[in-house]
Amino acid sequence: MFDEPCCRKTIFVAFRAAALGLWGEAGLDAIADRVDRDTRLQTIEPIVITREWLPERFVMAWYEAAWEGPADRRSATYLTFLDRMMDNGFGRVRKALLGFATPTLIATKSAELWRHDHSTGEVRTKSTGERSLTVTLRDHVYVSTPLARLSVAEIFRYAASLSRTREVGCTHSANGPNELVCWMTWR
């Protein structure tokens, strides 16, 4: 069905909204200046993104451009950008439902949520205690660079923080070239 790993267009709509909300047009322009032509033409310049699925390499380009550009390589600023992206992209109904869920329930649905938005990759979760779990992402481009690993770990952490819990912490590590493991705890 896909020639390369792809994700839903809603991710780019959310990226754009997060960039504009945090940094305005100047921030979006800074990102546009740092991505390749194809990414810019398909995810930034159109008023409406018409293709339902777009290459994951565009996400990787957005990560790098936001990090190097308007986030100015500041971790806190960059992570806030990812959190706002999640706020804009997760959908109001899904986000409201998360408020009633526990992190463990979210974890059990994570593979289904992942598959809804991504054509490749495998997400597995395992409860490791009453207030802890591991989330593993395998065979996906987001495992390939330190910035992408940081990004997806924050996205997993932030999704859990939307549940009925407090103070979600997350550490992560590459486990070989094709696997990312995130250890999450909460109060």
Describe this structure in words.
- By secondary structure, this protein is of the alpha+beta class.
- It folds into 2 domains: 6-89; 92-185, H-NOX domain.
- 52% of the residues lie in helices and 18% in strands.
- The chain contains 7 helices and 6 strands.
- It has helices spanning 10-34, 37-43, 56-68, 75-89, 92-98, 103-117, 146-161, and strands at 6-8, 53-55, 122-129, 132-138, 169-174, 179-185.
- The strands form 2 sheets. A 4-stranded antiparallel beta sheet has the order 3-4-6-5, covered by helices on one side.
- A hairpin with a 4-residue loop joins strand 5 (169-174) and strand 6.
- Helix 1 packs across helix 3 and helix 1 runs antiparallel to helix 4.
- It is globular and about 45 Å long.
- It starts with 5 loop residues before the first strand and ends with a strand.
Can you give keywords for this protein?
187 residues; H-NOX domain; alpha+beta; 2 domains; two-stranded antiparallel sheet
CATH architecture of the largest domain: Alpha-Beta Complex
CATH superfamily of the largest domain: H-NOX domain
Give the strand order of the largest sheet, numbering strands 1, 2, ... along the chain: 3-4-6-5
Helical percentage: 40-55%
- In round numbers, the mean pLDDT is 93
Structural class: alpha+beta
What's the helix-strand series?
A: EHHEHHHHEEHEE
Radius of gyration based on Cα positions? 16 Å
- Fraction of residues in β-strands: 15-25%
Number of strands: 6
Q: What's the number of helices? A: 7
Total domains = 2
Question: Segments where pLDDT lies below 50 for 5+ residues?
Answer: none
Distance between the termini: 42 Å
CATH fold-level assignment of the largest domain: H-NOX domain
Largest sheet features = 4 strands, antiparallel
Query: So what's the overall shape?
Result: globular
Query: Which class of the largest domain in CATH terms?
Result: Alpha Beta
